[in-house]
Amino acid sequence: DNRRDLLRSGTSATADFYIEHLPYLVVPLAFGLGAPTVILDTIFKFYRGANLFFNAACEIVLPTQTHAYAERDLRTLIRSTLLAFSLCLAPTLVVTGILAVAAEPLFKLLLGPAPTMPPAAVWVIIALLFGNLLQTVSSSLLIHTGYFQASARVMLLTAVCATVVGAVSLLTAHTIVHFMAVYAGVYIAGALLHAVLAVRGPVRATRAG
Prior knowledge:
It is built from 6 helices and no strands. By secondary structure, it is mainly alpha-helical.
């Protein structure tokens, strides 16, 4: 039923939008304006830039993936998916290396001399980059092989968990870095679920023929 698939695809996209923008509601309410919002926006600048690149990389292999799935060509499906993963991984490792060894001068270049970014925020950025990589590659395979329901369920579960994290942050006195670290953990858990479902869904179906 195309209407059900459209509904599931729309649900997944809406949940993804909600998850990405929830911190922009929580952070000003829980931690105030000024430095916290600068920290948040800087973290998500890296996230959004990576997300654009990851989606472009997945688009490159998409015709090969869908054709391999239709023909039940397991080897080609796996190779094309690994190619997408590799295309995403290479720049992620470069950015991770730069952040690991030169985060302070990089943030000074981006934000000016004010010491706004705490050192722990670097690891939040790195965690979100790898989580986004895994989720983008996995969800692209799921959605473009027709597994809309599986993707929608994971996105809804992740949205609920992220909402709980945001609500707790509003009621406690944790720092923005603590909130974003837990948020990144929830995001990575959702990405891992996407990866598991990609293996159990299209990959297993292709293997079964």
